[in-house]
Specification:
By secondary structure, the protein is mostly beta strands. Helices cover about 0% and strands about 65% of the residues. It has a ten-stranded antiparallel barrel with strand order 1-2-3-4-5-6-7-8-9-10. Its EC number is 5.99.-.-. Pathway: Nitrogen metabolism. InterPro entries: Calycin, Nb(III)_bact/plant, Nitrobindin, PeroxynitIsom, THAP4-like_heme-bd.
Length: about 170
């Protein structure tokens, strides 16, 4: 028996509480570089998808691949929520056994968004590496997102780990 194919739904306007995040909606692609004292530096390609369903959050899905051989590197899935006009929350699950809750500031300009986030809670399975803090700086300007990620893990203090630049793909 074949499964029914759902009919296409009409577009839904973003919830008023997140309307100012609408410039993030869509697919973003680009490249970045990762480094950390415990690993060899690497280049990667990335795709991020921000979506919504009319509720007061954006959906977030991220995937990376190694720049040289294309093998999958990392993925994150979660939600972006507003906690007020200048406050933002990011809730993520990582396939490495880590969950991440980050909170921080949001600045909205004419054609830009700037988020500064720091982890307020990290969860881990018994087999996940020990990550004690994460911080993210995300800047949207026009059709470009630039971000950096800081991490404290495996006995190292919080420091730079990733930076990438992505362009709107749609």
């Amino acid at each position: 028996m074949l499964a029914a194919v759902p009919e296409a739904q009409p577009p839904v306007a973003p919830h008023p509480d997140i309307a100012h995040l609408a410039p993030l909606l869509g697919v973003w692609r680009g490249s970045g570089r990762g480094e950390y004292p415990t690993i060899a530096s690497f280049d990667y390609h990335e795709e991020i998808h921000f979506g919504h369903v009319g509720r007061p959050f954006l959906t977030y899905r991220q995937r990376t691949r190694h720049a040289e051989d294309g093998r999958p590197l990392h993925a994150e899935t979660g939600y972006l929520r507003c906690a007020g006009p200048d406050r933002i929350e990011l809730i993520l699950a990582h396939p490495t056994g880590i969950t991440e809750i980050c909170e921080g500031t949001l600045k909205v300009g004419d054609d830009s968004l700037r988020m500064e986030l720091g982890s307020t809670a990290l969860g881990r399975t018994t087999t996940a590496k020990i990550v004690t803090s994460l911080g993210r700086s995300i800047h949207l300007s026009g059709d470009t997102i630039d971000y950096s990620l800081r991490m404290a893990a495996v006995g190292q203090p919080e420091q730079h780990h990733l930076a990438a630049s992505l362009r709107r793909a749609e």
